[in-house]
């Protein structure tokens, strides 16, 4: 099959999505679409290299929002029905909100619109699904209560990206999620993959419900369900 797979800037269900993507790419031609935030967040969670490693070749490209200017020419493949399926996983509340309001002002939202026009079925895994609390995972974080304010910050010294501001925070826009700082700090002041609980907003859940009612779109609860639809 020829598949387009979009990744937006959600940390929730991100590693689970990448795992399924890595499985699917073994048997299918997959073009990977990244929203600007998707590109950044993949780096923060140390997953960007894994995604780029499975791209290369015709219909196996990495399509970046930032490379697609304002009109997103690659989305034309969807309006021409060149893909058998468009998968969006994980999908942020921001992208869901735009889709349900018919907005097409980014690579991802334009591609969903073009898939609808080209009769390409779209599978969407939204991260905001049901009312209530959800456990999610953070990227690397400097835990100030554990930081000993050492004269030489070993974690900062180890970081090739210059992402650590000692005794302050990690600049996530520089962080590539390699985890080296975590190992370098003798006081375990850097956490990675810490679990937190977040509350789902009513507006985001309402938007997900609207998504379920849209033609040509099929909403899945988890990336694990994608395989059943291939
Ligand atoms: C570390 C990190 C994790 C994030 N995780 C989520 C998330 O799970 N769900 C969500 O809706 N937004 C999340 N965001 C915020 C989105 O990246 C932000 O709303 C962005 O504008 C979404 O753009 P996009 O929909 O074009 O990808 C996260 C941001 C950061 C920095």
Automatic annotation (TrEMBL):
<dbReference type="GO" id="GO:0016645">
    <property type="term" value="F:oxidoreductase activity, acting on the CH-NH group of donors"/>
</dbReference>
<dbReference type="InterPro" id="IPR003382">
    <property type="entry name" value="Flavoprotein"/>
</dbReference>
<keyword id="KW-0560">Oxidoreductase</keyword>
<dbReference type="InterPro" id="IPR014073">
    <property type="entry name" value="DmrX"/>
</dbReference>
<dbReference type="InterPro" id="IPR017896">
    <property type="entry name" value="4Fe4S_Fe-S-bd"/>
</dbReference>
<protein>
    <submittedName>
        <fullName>NAD(P)H-quinone oxidoreductase subunit I, chloroplastic</fullName>
        <ecNumber>1.6.5.11</ecNumber>
    </submittedName>
</protein>
<dbReference type="Pfam" id="PF02441">
    <property type="entry name" value="Flavoprotein"/>
</dbReference>
<dbReference type="GO" id="GO:0051539">
    <property type="term" value="F:4 iron, 4 sulfur cluster binding"/>
</dbReference>
<dbReference type="InterPro" id="IPR017900">
    <property type="entry name" value="4Fe4S_Fe_S_CS"/>
</dbReference>
<dbReference type="Pfam" id="PF00037">
    <property type="entry name" value="Fer4"/>
</dbReference>
<feature type="domain" description="4Fe-4S ferredoxin-type">
    <location>
        <begin position="166"/>
        <end position="195"/>
    </location>
</feature>
<dbReference type="GO" id="GO:1901285">
    <property type="term" value="P:5,6,7,8-tetrahydromethanopterin biosynthetic process"/>
</dbReference>
<dbReference type="InterPro" id="IPR036551">
    <property type="entry name" value="Flavin_trans-like"/>
</dbReference>
């Amino acid at each position: 099959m020829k598949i387009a797979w979009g990744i937006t800037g959600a940390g929730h269900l991100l590693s689970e999505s990448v795992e399924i993507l890595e499985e699917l790419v073994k048997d299918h031609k997959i073009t990977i679409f990244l929203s600007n935030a998707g590109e950044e967040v993949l780096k923060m969670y140390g997953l960007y290299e894994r995604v780029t490693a499975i791209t290369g070749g015709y219909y196996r490209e990495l399509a970046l929002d930032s490379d697609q200017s304002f009109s997103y020419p690659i989305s034309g493949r969807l309006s021409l029905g060149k893909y058998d399926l468009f998968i969006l996983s994980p999908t942020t509340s921001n992208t869901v909100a735009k889709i349900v309001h018919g907005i097409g002002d980014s690579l991802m939202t334009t591609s969903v619109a073009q898939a609808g026009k080209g009769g390409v079925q779209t599978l969407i895994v939204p991260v905001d699904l049901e009312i209530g609390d959800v456990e999610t995972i953070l990227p690397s974080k400097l835990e100030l209560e554990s930081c000993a304010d050492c004269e030489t910050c070993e974690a900062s010294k180890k970081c090739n990206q210059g992402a650590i501001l000692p005794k302050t925070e990690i600049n996530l826009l520089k962080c590539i999620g390699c985890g080296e700082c975590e190992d370098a700090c003798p006081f375990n002041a850097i956490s990675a993959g810490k679990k937190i609980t977040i509350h789902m907003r009513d507006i985001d859940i309402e938007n997900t419900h609207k998504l379920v009612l849209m033609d040509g779109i099929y909403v899945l609860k988890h990336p694990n369900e994608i395989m059943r639809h291939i």
